[in-house]
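Every protein is a chain of amino acids, and every chain bends into a shape of its own. The protein below has been through that process, and both of its lines are reproduced in full.
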Amino acid sequence: MSFFDRKGVNAEKIMKYSFWKKFRNFDLDTEIIRSSELLSESIHQRKSDILIAFSDGTDLISPERIHDFVTKFAKLQLIVIGRDSSYKTTRCYFLSGVYDYLTDPFDESTLEESVARMCCDYGVDYVENELKFKVDALIANIFLGGGSEDFIISEIFEQIFKDWNNDPVNCQIISDKAKLYIYETLIERKPWLEKFLYKDDFTYRFGFSLKSKGELIRIWIMNFKEASAMVTKYQMIDDKLVYKIGKYAVVHVDEKLSLDDVSKGVFLNPSYISHVFKKITNMSFVNFMTEVKIDRAKVLLRDNEMSIKEIAYTLGFANQEYFTKIFKKKMGVTPIMYKQFLIEKYVIEES
Protein backbone atom coordinates (compact mmCIF):
# COMPACT_ATOMS: atom_id res chain seq x y z
CA MET A 1 0.00 0.00 0.00
CA SER A 2 1.37 3.38 -1.03
CA PHE A 3 0.45 6.96 -0.12
CA PHE A 4 0.37 10.08 -2.28
CA ASP A 5 0.42 13.33 -0.32
CA ARG A 6 2.26 16.41 -1.58
CA LYS A 7 2.78 17.80 1.91
CA GLY A 8 3.16 14.42 3.59
CA VAL A 9 1.53 15.47 6.87
CA ASN A 10 -1.78 13.66 6.39
CA ALA A 11 -0.14 10.47 5.14
CA GLU A 12 2.22 10.40 8.10
CA LYS A 13 -0.76 10.78 10.42
CA ILE A 14 -2.81 7.90 9.05
CA MET A 15 0.21 5.58 8.87
CA LYS A 16 0.24 5.79 12.67
CA TYR A 17 -3.35 4.55 13.00
CA SER A 18 -3.58 1.48 15.21
CA PHE A 19 -5.95 -0.49 12.94
CA TRP A 20 -3.16 -1.31 10.47
CA LYS A 21 -2.06 -4.04 12.87
CA LYS A 22 -5.24 -5.95 11.98
CA PHE A 23 -4.26 -6.07 8.33
CA ARG A 24 -1.02 -7.99 8.48
CA ASN A 25 -1.35 -8.88 4.81
CA PHE A 26 -0.58 -5.25 3.94
CA ASP A 27 2.91 -3.87 3.55
CA LEU A 28 2.76 -0.14 4.22
CA ASP A 29 5.14 1.84 2.04
CA THR A 30 6.58 4.36 4.48
CA GLU A 31 8.18 6.42 1.70
CA ILE A 32 5.40 8.86 0.82
CA ILE A 33 5.01 9.82 -2.85
CA ARG A 34 4.98 13.63 -2.99
CA SER A 35 5.37 14.39 -6.69
CA SER A 36 2.48 13.85 -9.11
CA GLU A 37 4.96 13.69 -11.98
CA LEU A 38 6.59 10.66 -10.36
CA LEU A 39 3.35 9.00 -9.27
CA SER A 40 3.03 6.53 -12.16
CA GLU A 41 6.70 5.65 -12.07
CA SER A 42 6.60 5.14 -8.30
CA ILE A 43 3.55 2.86 -8.45
CA HIS A 44 5.18 0.82 -11.19
CA GLN A 45 8.49 0.48 -9.34
CA ARG A 46 6.91 -0.32 -5.98
CA LYS A 47 4.33 -2.70 -7.50
CA SER A 48 1.65 -1.11 -5.33
CA ASP A 49 -1.80 -2.69 -5.29
CA ILE A 50 -3.51 -0.02 -3.17
CA LEU A 51 -3.01 3.73 -3.22
CA ILE A 52 -4.39 6.27 -0.75
CA ALA A 53 -4.18 9.69 -2.39
CA PHE A 54 -4.81 13.08 -0.79
CA SER A 55 -6.38 15.68 -3.06
CA ASP A 56 -5.38 19.27 -2.35
CA GLY A 57 -8.00 20.83 -4.61
CA THR A 58 -5.78 21.11 -7.69
CA ASP A 59 -6.10 18.99 -10.82
CA LEU A 60 -3.25 16.72 -9.71
CA ILE A 61 -5.69 14.16 -8.30
CA SER A 62 -8.74 15.22 -10.28
CA PRO A 63 -11.33 12.65 -11.44
CA GLU A 64 -10.01 13.01 -14.99
CA ARG A 65 -6.44 12.20 -13.92
CA ILE A 66 -7.70 9.35 -11.75
CA HIS A 67 -9.56 7.83 -14.70
CA ASP A 68 -6.38 7.77 -16.78
CA PHE A 69 -4.50 6.34 -13.83
CA VAL A 70 -6.84 3.42 -13.12
CA THR A 71 -6.92 2.63 -16.84
CA LYS A 72 -3.14 2.33 -16.83
CA PHE A 73 -2.98 0.30 -13.60
CA ALA A 74 -5.98 -2.01 -13.89
CA LYS A 75 -5.36 -3.93 -10.66
CA LEU A 76 -4.71 -0.85 -8.52
CA GLN A 77 -7.33 0.09 -5.92
CA LEU A 78 -7.59 3.78 -5.01
CA ILE A 79 -8.96 5.62 -2.02
CA VAL A 80 -9.04 9.37 -2.56
CA ILE A 81 -9.30 11.75 0.39
CA GLY A 82 -10.40 15.32 -0.31
CA ARG A 83 -12.11 18.32 1.26
CA ASP A 84 -14.88 18.75 -1.31
CA SER A 85 -17.94 16.92 0.02
CA SER A 86 -20.33 17.96 -2.76
CA TYR A 87 -22.42 15.31 -4.49
CA LYS A 88 -21.02 16.31 -7.89
CA THR A 89 -17.40 15.82 -6.87
CA THR A 90 -18.08 12.58 -5.01
CA ARG A 91 -19.98 11.19 -8.00
CA CYS A 92 -17.23 12.18 -10.43
CA TYR A 93 -14.60 10.38 -8.38
CA PHE A 94 -16.61 7.16 -8.20
CA LEU A 95 -17.32 7.32 -11.93
CA SER A 96 -13.60 7.77 -12.56
CA GLY A 97 -12.92 4.39 -10.97
CA VAL A 98 -11.85 5.03 -7.37
CA TYR A 99 -12.76 2.41 -4.79
CA ASP A 100 -13.78 5.02 -2.21
CA TYR A 101 -13.85 8.76 -1.70
CA LEU A 102 -13.53 10.09 1.86
CA THR A 103 -14.10 13.65 2.97
CA ASP A 104 -11.42 15.26 5.11
CA PRO A 105 -11.57 15.65 8.08
CA PHE A 106 -12.44 12.05 8.96
CA ASP A 107 -11.83 9.78 11.92
CA GLU A 108 -9.75 6.62 12.07
CA SER A 109 -12.76 4.28 12.04
CA THR A 110 -13.96 5.72 8.71
CA LEU A 111 -10.73 4.80 6.95
CA GLU A 112 -10.63 1.43 8.71
CA GLU A 113 -14.11 0.58 7.39
CA SER A 114 -13.08 1.56 3.88
CA VAL A 115 -9.93 -0.56 3.99
CA ALA A 116 -11.88 -3.51 5.45
CA ARG A 117 -14.42 -3.34 2.61
CA MET A 118 -11.59 -3.20 0.12
CA CYS A 119 -10.04 -6.32 1.63
CA CYS A 120 -13.33 -8.17 1.28
CA ASP A 121 -13.80 -7.09 -2.35
CA TYR A 122 -10.18 -7.39 -3.45
CA GLY A 123 -9.77 -10.10 -6.06
CA VAL A 124 -13.44 -11.16 -6.17
CA ASP A 125 -13.92 -10.11 -9.81
CA TYR A 126 -10.78 -12.00 -10.79
CA VAL A 127 -12.01 -15.17 -9.10
CA GLU A 128 -15.50 -14.94 -10.62
CA ASN A 129 -14.23 -14.21 -14.13
CA GLU A 130 -10.61 -15.13 -14.83
CA LEU A 131 -10.63 -18.25 -12.62
CA LYS A 132 -14.21 -19.26 -13.35
CA PHE A 133 -13.48 -22.16 -15.71
CA LYS A 134 -11.06 -23.90 -13.35
CA VAL A 135 -13.01 -23.09 -10.21
CA ASP A 136 -16.18 -24.51 -11.78
CA ALA A 137 -14.22 -27.61 -12.78
CA LEU A 138 -13.19 -28.19 -9.16
CA ILE A 139 -16.74 -27.70 -7.90
CA ALA A 140 -18.09 -30.13 -10.51
CA ASN A 141 -15.42 -32.68 -9.59
CA ILE A 142 -16.32 -32.46 -5.90
CA PHE A 143 -20.00 -33.07 -6.66
CA LEU A 144 -18.98 -36.09 -8.71
CA GLY A 145 -17.15 -37.50 -5.69
CA GLY A 146 -13.68 -36.15 -6.40
CA GLY A 147 -10.67 -37.93 -7.80
CA SER A 148 -9.10 -35.06 -9.75
CA GLU A 149 -8.61 -32.54 -6.94
CA ASP A 150 -4.80 -32.64 -7.11
CA PHE A 151 -4.65 -31.83 -10.83
CA ILE A 152 -7.36 -29.14 -10.87
CA ILE A 153 -6.04 -27.38 -7.76
CA SER A 154 -2.50 -27.36 -9.18
CA GLU A 155 -3.87 -25.79 -12.37
CA ILE A 156 -5.72 -23.13 -10.36
CA PHE A 157 -2.55 -22.16 -8.54
CA GLU A 158 -0.48 -22.12 -11.72
CA GLN A 159 -2.87 -19.55 -13.16
CA ILE A 160 -3.03 -17.45 -9.99
CA PHE A 161 0.74 -17.23 -9.64
CA LYS A 162 1.16 -16.47 -13.35
CA ASP A 163 -1.53 -13.79 -13.44
CA TRP A 164 -0.31 -12.13 -10.24
CA ASN A 165 3.39 -12.16 -11.16
CA ASN A 166 4.33 -14.66 -8.43
CA ASP A 167 3.76 -12.03 -5.76
CA PRO A 168 3.36 -14.18 -2.61
CA VAL A 169 1.04 -11.82 -0.71
CA ASN A 170 -1.35 -11.16 -3.60
CA CYS A 171 -1.35 -14.80 -4.66
CA GLN A 172 -2.29 -15.93 -1.15
CA ILE A 173 -5.04 -13.30 -0.86
CA ILE A 174 -6.48 -14.33 -4.23
CA SER A 175 -6.26 -18.04 -3.41
CA ASP A 176 -8.07 -17.41 -0.11
CA LYS A 177 -10.82 -15.52 -1.94
CA ALA A 178 -11.13 -18.36 -4.45
CA LYS A 179 -11.32 -20.90 -1.65
CA LEU A 180 -14.12 -19.00 0.07
CA TYR A 181 -15.98 -18.62 -3.24
CA ILE A 182 -15.81 -22.39 -3.85
CA TYR A 183 -16.97 -23.14 -0.29
CA GLU A 184 -19.92 -20.77 -0.55
CA THR A 185 -20.92 -22.29 -3.89
CA LEU A 186 -20.78 -25.80 -2.44
CA ILE A 187 -22.97 -24.78 0.50
CA GLU A 188 -25.39 -22.88 -1.73
CA ARG A 189 -25.96 -25.98 -3.88
CA LYS A 190 -25.97 -28.50 -1.03
CA PRO A 191 -26.84 -26.66 2.21
CA TRP A 192 -26.54 -29.84 4.29
CA LEU A 193 -22.82 -29.98 3.46
CA GLU A 194 -22.21 -27.05 5.83
CA LYS A 195 -22.68 -29.37 8.81
CA PHE A 196 -19.74 -31.55 7.73
CA LEU A 197 -17.13 -28.94 6.79
CA TYR A 198 -15.17 -26.80 9.25
CA LYS A 199 -15.92 -23.29 8.03
CA ASP A 200 -12.67 -21.75 9.28
CA ASP A 201 -10.79 -23.95 6.79
CA PHE A 202 -12.40 -21.97 3.98
CA THR A 203 -13.04 -18.51 5.41
CA TYR A 204 -10.90 -15.52 4.43
CA ARG A 205 -9.41 -13.72 7.43
CA PHE A 206 -7.65 -10.38 7.66
CA GLY A 207 -4.01 -10.97 8.37
CA PHE A 208 -2.33 -14.30 7.79
CA SER A 209 0.98 -16.08 7.98
CA LEU A 210 2.52 -16.20 4.54
CA LYS A 211 2.69 -19.71 3.09
CA SER A 212 4.53 -21.09 0.10
CA LYS A 213 2.76 -22.10 -3.08
CA GLY A 214 3.34 -25.76 -2.22
CA GLU A 215 1.88 -25.35 1.28
CA LEU A 216 -1.23 -23.64 -0.07
CA ILE A 217 -1.78 -26.38 -2.65
CA ARG A 218 -1.37 -29.08 0.00
CA ILE A 219 -3.92 -27.42 2.32
CA TRP A 220 -6.40 -26.94 -0.53
CA ILE A 221 -6.11 -30.59 -1.55
CA MET A 222 -6.65 -31.75 2.03
CA ASN A 223 -9.69 -29.51 2.57
CA PHE A 224 -11.43 -30.19 -0.73
CA LYS A 225 -10.80 -33.93 -0.59
CA GLU A 226 -12.68 -33.86 2.71
CA ALA A 227 -15.53 -32.06 0.94
CA SER A 228 -15.52 -34.69 -1.83
CA ALA A 229 -15.59 -37.49 0.75
CA MET A 230 -18.63 -36.00 2.48
CA VAL A 231 -20.46 -35.54 -0.82
CA THR A 232 -19.76 -39.17 -1.72
CA LYS A 233 -20.77 -40.49 1.69
CA TYR A 234 -24.08 -38.66 1.85
CA GLN A 235 -25.03 -38.57 -1.83
CA MET A 236 -27.78 -41.12 -1.11
CA ILE A 237 -29.87 -38.42 0.58
CA ASP A 238 -30.18 -36.74 -2.82
CA ASP A 239 -32.54 -39.56 -3.83
CA LYS A 240 -35.99 -37.97 -4.15
CA LEU A 241 -37.61 -40.62 -1.93
CA VAL A 242 -35.38 -39.92 1.07
CA TYR A 243 -34.15 -36.38 0.38
CA LYS A 244 -36.62 -34.66 2.69
CA ILE A 245 -35.91 -37.19 5.45
CA GLY A 246 -32.12 -37.08 5.14
CA LYS A 247 -31.98 -33.31 4.79
CA TYR A 248 -34.11 -32.81 7.90
CA ALA A 249 -31.89 -35.14 9.92
CA VAL A 250 -28.70 -33.37 8.82
CA VAL A 251 -30.04 -29.82 9.25
CA HIS A 252 -31.25 -30.68 12.78
CA VAL A 253 -28.20 -32.74 13.75
CA ASP A 254 -27.33 -30.24 16.51
CA GLU A 255 -30.43 -31.32 18.42
CA LYS A 256 -31.68 -34.34 20.31
CA LEU A 257 -33.43 -36.08 17.44
CA SER A 258 -35.50 -39.28 17.44
CA LEU A 259 -37.33 -41.06 14.65
CA ASP A 260 -40.59 -39.61 15.99
CA ASP A 261 -39.11 -36.10 15.87
CA VAL A 262 -38.13 -36.56 12.22
CA SER A 263 -41.54 -38.07 11.47
CA LYS A 264 -43.27 -34.97 12.80
CA GLY A 265 -40.81 -32.70 11.02
CA VAL A 266 -41.36 -34.20 7.57
CA PHE A 267 -45.01 -35.26 8.07
CA LEU A 268 -44.37 -38.93 7.31
CA ASN A 269 -45.19 -42.10 9.24
CA PRO A 270 -42.24 -43.45 11.32
CA SER A 271 -42.70 -46.93 9.87
CA TYR A 272 -42.64 -45.56 6.33
CA ILE A 273 -39.46 -43.60 7.08
CA SER A 274 -37.71 -46.70 8.41
CA HIS A 275 -38.85 -48.82 5.47
CA VAL A 276 -38.04 -46.45 2.63
CA PHE A 277 -34.74 -45.33 4.14
CA LYS A 278 -33.53 -48.91 4.53
CA LYS A 279 -34.67 -49.76 1.01
CA ILE A 280 -32.93 -46.82 -0.67
CA THR A 281 -29.75 -46.49 1.40
CA ASN A 282 -29.31 -50.04 2.67
CA MET A 283 -28.88 -48.48 6.11
CA SER A 284 -31.30 -48.19 9.00
CA PHE A 285 -32.38 -44.66 9.87
CA VAL A 286 -30.97 -45.06 13.40
CA ASN A 287 -27.55 -46.00 12.01
CA PHE A 288 -27.76 -43.09 9.57
CA MET A 289 -28.39 -40.66 12.41
CA THR A 290 -25.41 -42.07 14.31
CA GLU A 291 -23.19 -41.55 11.25
CA VAL A 292 -24.44 -37.99 10.87
CA LYS A 293 -23.83 -37.13 14.52
CA ILE A 294 -20.32 -38.63 14.54
CA ASP A 295 -19.34 -36.78 11.35
CA ARG A 296 -20.74 -33.59 12.84
CA ALA A 297 -18.82 -34.28 16.06
CA LYS A 298 -15.58 -34.49 14.08
CA VAL A 299 -16.21 -30.96 12.84
CA LEU A 300 -17.13 -29.62 16.28
CA LEU A 301 -13.97 -31.16 17.73
CA ARG A 302 -12.01 -28.72 15.56
CA ASP A 303 -13.43 -25.90 17.68
CA ASN A 304 -11.01 -25.28 20.54
CA GLU A 305 -13.68 -23.28 22.36
CA MET A 306 -15.98 -26.30 22.79
CA SER A 307 -15.42 -28.95 25.45
CA ILE A 308 -16.25 -32.62 24.91
CA LYS A 309 -19.17 -32.19 27.30
CA GLU A 310 -20.52 -29.24 25.31
CA ILE A 311 -20.24 -31.18 22.05
CA ALA A 312 -22.10 -34.14 23.55
CA TYR A 313 -24.85 -31.80 24.77
CA THR A 314 -25.02 -29.97 21.42
CA LEU A 315 -25.52 -33.22 19.52
CA GLY A 316 -28.27 -34.39 21.86
CA PHE A 317 -26.43 -37.20 23.65
CA ALA A 318 -27.61 -38.00 27.17
CA ASN A 319 -24.18 -37.33 28.67
CA GLN A 320 -20.47 -37.16 27.86
CA GLU A 321 -19.89 -40.80 28.76
CA TYR A 322 -22.48 -42.09 26.30
CA PHE A 323 -21.15 -39.79 23.57
CA THR A 324 -17.62 -41.07 24.21
CA LYS A 325 -18.83 -44.67 24.03
CA ILE A 326 -20.61 -44.18 20.68
CA PHE A 327 -17.75 -42.12 19.23
CA LYS A 328 -15.13 -44.72 20.16
CA LYS A 329 -17.28 -47.52 18.75
CA LYS A 330 -17.43 -45.74 15.38
CA MET A 331 -13.96 -44.19 15.25
CA GLY A 332 -11.85 -46.56 17.33
CA VAL A 333 -10.61 -43.72 19.54
CA THR A 334 -12.15 -41.47 22.17
CA PRO A 335 -13.14 -37.87 21.33
CA ILE A 336 -10.17 -36.59 23.37
CA MET A 337 -7.76 -38.79 21.42
CA TYR A 338 -9.34 -37.72 18.14
CA LYS A 339 -9.03 -34.06 19.12
CA GLN A 340 -5.31 -34.58 19.73
CA PHE A 341 -5.06 -36.24 16.32
CA LEU A 342 -6.67 -33.17 14.77
CA ILE A 343 -4.19 -30.86 16.48
CA GLU A 344 -1.34 -32.86 14.96
CA LYS A 345 -3.03 -33.09 11.53
CA TYR A 346 -3.74 -29.39 11.29
CA VAL A 347 -0.37 -28.35 12.62
CA ILE A 348 -0.22 -25.57 10.02
CA GLU A 349 -1.33 -22.65 12.16
CA GLU A 350 -0.99 -18.91 12.10
CA SER A 351 2.45 -17.97 13.37
Observations:
- The first strand starts at residue 2 and ends at 4.
- Strands lie at 2-4, 50-54, 77-82, 100-103.
- The first helix runs from residue 9 to 15.
- The radius of gyration is 26 Å.
